[in-house]
Design goal:
The protein has about 375 residues and is of the alpha/beta class. Helix content is about 25%, strand content about 20%. The strands form 4 sheets. Strands 9-7-8-4-3-14-15-2-16 form a 9-stranded mixed β-sheet. Strands 1-12-11 form a 3-stranded antiparallel β-sheet. Strands 5-6 form a two-stranded antiparallel sheet.
Length: about 375
């Protein structure tokens, strides 16, 4: 099977005819892009002052309820009740809904709080209210750690996890599970538990979160490039191969049988077009089953005779990236990450290192603009709270 390499493609000829979506490499747009930049905005997470539809991903960790007083009259986190805190966060989500592009999403790191000897259930309250306001809760990722702050309590276990809530506005949000899975190297869908130990930090911020948390969120949710005309993110284009994971005995045996029977690439493609099975429930639930041409069905039947029960293994064959979608406008831009509670700027620094533009908003930014190249500040409205 001939596979086009991702790293090299001819320079595309951009067209204004968007009836055809092309495919090109990331490198084809990269030459027209300036280096990734960061911007710092002194302002409120509820009133960022940013433009509508200008952000691809929000990665942030707001102050937890009743955990730390930052001494600012407009701060979030010192509300008198959990419900008041959640309402402040809902005001943030309303604002973030405005600045996010239609394909954008939010990774929200939040922990719970003990009050009067009981957990308050803050993450659940946030999720419930967010759903009422039209958000989709796509994952409740569990961030686990080997250690943490000392726990004086003698009648309960020490807390060693927090939550990362993934929220989206529409089902077709940008999501690069393939790239993330390759990075993690432990399966096609690595799961919703992230073991990431906190990084040592001697700065003035007592609650920094690790770069690895940001890195995973950006990898999953922020496109490396977008079109500044139509706001469409560039997404991977795949081609499935005949290669299987030979660490699995069943997959290794399937490849041996296919080679011994002389099955061609057309046979393998027919298996993949047909699905796991061509009988029973599969004909009702699997796309492609029973709808393929007679030639595809014939090839699939031949393959099934040769492979027997190992037939299904080739439906899990490895994929390769053959390029990225190209809308044809010829107006490239980098993906944009926002941290509306930027603190020391961990999100901004990590996103910039990953080739994304980033903007941070904070009432009192602890990250100095001199640390990284930054755009001019944009005045932000104040909440008056």
């Amino acid at each position: 099977m001939s596979l086009a390499p991702e790293a090299h493609h001819a320079q595309p000829t951009f067209s204004r005819n968007l009836s055809t979506v092309g495919v090109s490499a990331l490198e084809d747009w990269e030459g027209n892009l300036p280096p990734a930049t960061t911007e710092v905005v002194i302002g409120d997470a509820r009133h960022t002052g940013l433009a509508n539809d200008s952000v691809d991903l929000i990665v942030t960790s707001p102050p937890y309820w009743q955990k730390r007083d930052y001494g600012h009259q407009d701060q979030i986190g010192q509300e008198p009740t959990p419900q008041a805190y959640v309402e402040s966060m809902m005001e943030c989500l309303d604002e973030w809904k405005r600045v996010l592009r239609p394909t954008g999403s939010v990774f929200l790191n939040v922990g719970d709080t003990y009050y009067n000897r009981s957990l308050m259930g803050i993450p659940g309250l946030l999720e419930f209210d967010a759903v009422q306001r039209g958000w989709l809760i796509r994952n409740r990722i569990i961030w686990t750690k080997d250690g943490g702050m000392p726990e004086p309590a003698k009648n309960r276990l020490a807390n060693r996890h927090e939550y990362i809530i993934h929220l989206a506005l529409k089902p077709n949000y940008y999501y690069d599970l393939f790239g993330y899975s390759e990075y993690m190297g432990n399966g096609a869908n690595p799961g919703d538990v992230w073991k990431i130990n906190p990084e040592r930090n001697m700065g003035s911020h007592l609650a920094p979160y690790p770069q690895e948390l940001v890195r995973r969120s950006v990898m999953l949710g922020c496109p490396p490039q977008v079109c500044s005309t139509c706001n469409k993110p560039r997404s991977r284009v795949f081609e499935r191969t005949r290669e299987l994971d030979t660490n699995r005995p069943q997959a290794k045996r399937a490849m041996e049988l296919a080679d011994a029977a002389g099955l061609t690439d057309d046979h393998i493609r027919a298996i993949q077009a047909t699905g796991v099975s061509d009988v029973g429930k599969a004909t009702k639930f699997q796309n492609g089953t029973g709808r393929n041409s007679q030639e595809v069905q014939r090839l699939a039947a031949e393959a099934k005779v040769a492979l027997g029960g190992y037939f299904r293994e080739f439906t899990f064959a490895k994929k390769v990236t053959t390029g990225w979608t190209d809308c044809g406008h010829g107006t490239p831009a980098r993906g944009m990450v926002l941290d509306p509670f930027m603190g020391t700027g961990t999100t901004l620094k990590t996103a910039q290192d990953m080739g994304r533009d980033a903007v941070g908003v904070d009432l009192v930014p602890l990250m100095q603009q001199a640390e990284v190249p930054a755009k001019p500040k944009v005045p932000a409205k104040r909440s008056g709270r």
